[in-house]
Amino acid sequence: MAKIVQCVPNFSEGRDLDKIEKIVDPLRGKEGVKLLNYEADKDYNRVVVTVIGEPEAVKNAVVESICVASELIDMTKHEGQHSRMGATDVVPFIPIKEMSMDEAVELAKSCAKDVWEKHNVPVFLYEKAASKPERENLATVRKGQFEGMSEKLKDPNWHPDFGENKIHPTAGITAVGARMPLIAYNINLDTTNIEIANKIARCIRHSNGGFRFCKAGPVEIPERNIVQVTMNLTDYTKTSMYRVFETVRMEAKRYGVNVMGSEVVGLVPMEAIADTAAYYLGLENFDMDKILETGLME
Amino acid sequence: MAKIVQCVPNFSEGRDLDKIEKIVDPLRGKEGVKLLNYEADKDYNRVVVTVIGEPEAVKNAVVESICVASELIDMTKHEGQHSRMGATDVVPFIPIKEMSMDEAVELAKSCAKDVWEKHNVPVFLYEKAASKPERENLATVRKGQFEGMSEKLKDPNWHPDFGENKIHPTAGITAVGARMPLIAYNINLDTTNIEIANKIARCIRHSNGGFRFCKAGPVEIPERNIVQVTMNLTDYTKTSMYRVFETVRMEAKRYGVNVMGSEVVGLVPMEAIADTAAYYLGLENFDMDKILETGLME
Questions:
Q1: CB contacts < 8 Å between A and B, how many?
Q2: pLDDT value at residue A198
Q3: What is this model's ipTM?
Q4: Which domains are seen in chain A, by residue range?
């Protein structure tokens, strides 16, 4: 079976459609590379691109896009609501199929090396590719943002993983890493009481003693007269959708509140959905090879 | 998105591996065509081939295989336990993705036309492609088998849909049709009492008042000290896996018997699995485009 990687580069341009098209263009029409979508946000002044395909081909195409971004985006003039430190701000590689996290980490390092050697943009490795624990968290890496990076790099603890001890004058510095696919998942509660959603979120999220790979918080949906527990599941192979769902249902009972349903925001890996069906049907000896479409992707 | 069809031709050769390879060979290495597997059965003297891909390409490759089979297999010398009427016995086309049943029917008709015009093998259309109600059921169409077909074709009601009023002297006659993907699904009951499995099977199967697209029966699994309700779901879009599973659980309660789990035999379409997960999680606005891998198959 073919290895499949996903890459979700974030570029610091969300307003100039012409520039956005030029940045995205290297990801189109290449053998082994599929551009899934890109969403520009004007307030953030940022575009999030999703591309998928054969690992080496995806990496090479993304390096090309990073090159275009470093030529077109001048960070000294960039304004936007989202934290950022480079023309290409962050580049996560996500193993999707027949690929280990170690392989995704190697791909991230190879990408980082190319970005520095070919385009003179320095790189921090982050998350699973991080060279030390304090670089795992992107927010920590990016702290100081573009404007504070020249100062930050003077600290010997913050020497880039690739590149010299200074940022690119207009393209800044980029974070390249590897991580599991993330599932954005919301569960709807039949109440307007946000405090109940808050209490349930605290039961299931890692930071308060809940599941290891669950981030959660409460949200009001006033137009539907309900509240939501909104979540990011950061490793669905270890913190399952069905386990989180059933736990929320269990906790909601405590308040006499019904779970009305749930929703996936964005994309969800097939394996997470198949694992959910396998749990509820008690499927024996079930794996992805039992799914007809798996054969189509070999 | 690309249209995907599955085709499962059955050829009347299950013993001579050299001939089987020659029959299967046209399905290999063709653009847009993927040979998923083939299983020869010596007792049946029959090989069942599963191929999938772009409709026109799959049809053309299958027509080539049918040609090879009609050259290599002499039905006047064929012996086997399975009913059969032709060197290529039956050719169902199954719409898998972005394809309607009407399109699968058109593909079946186009295949049937080619088989007759290029290889002089007459064809009955069956199931969804049938030209009259009495030709929908394959067993009815095949009744009389190869040996009785010359006589059967003299009946004006059994003029082939393509071809003249006589069979090919050595390749016989072929059934070409269109149908939904079939899910072979078994549910395990924690009892050795086969009568309970039998009673539950009668509740859920169409022939006794159960679900429209469910065939079911009881099976003993002595090595595990359990019984099974064994099923074919012939249209999972209308008779869902979860609905059948929950109904079996409901009926089993009547006898104080637990449902231990279930199993899929062979392949299951992703949509059937996704629909199951969506039911149990109460997923709102969920469809196949939310699944990451769907983008890979476009």
A1: 130
A2: 97
A3: 0.79
A4: 4-178 (3.30.990.10), 183-297 (3.30.70.670)
